[in-house]
Amino acid sequence: MTSYLVLEAPDGPDRQGLSTRFVADRFSWLGFIVPWIWLAANRLWLFAAITVVIQISAGALSTVKGFEVAGALSAIALGLLTGFEGRNLLVRHLTAKGWQTTDLVVAPDLATAENIHFSMIADEPPIETAVAKPEWKTSSQGVSRLADSDAAGLFQFDFSGRR
Predict the structure, then answer these.
(1) How far from chain centre, in Å, is Cα 104?
(2) DSSP 71-120
(3) pLDDT in tens, 106-140
């Protein structure tokens, strides 16, 4: 099962769901194999340019005698970083542009995630329900505590001031 982050456009959701974006929270194989192409395809231009420079530098480093392994390892490390964290970078980039994370859906595929998300959206806005607040009492020393009686024995220690 894959978890999908549901992002809504800055303009807000539309009725057809065309401005809703689902981002899978999983490893990106294309981001691992060719990181700069994956970043450019997701419109992360600055990171794609930085990745190209790092890959060219890693390639040049691997031609220097004694640094062949270091160049290869840096290229692999960049691919792993993009594969594991590329989608997180995409979500952060979209959030910085005003997109809002509205939901997290766990589903086996994208179509099922879309069905789950859009089936939970009601035609009317949800009614706010009030959550019951605990009744706090203040002791003579000014320390707030729950009600003196603990008939159910929910607390490990005695809060009524007895020894």
Answers:
(1) 9
(2) HHHHHHHHHHHHHHHHHHHHHHHHHHTT-EEEEEEEESSHHHHHHHHHHH
(3) 999 999 999 998 888 765 555 666 677 777 666 55
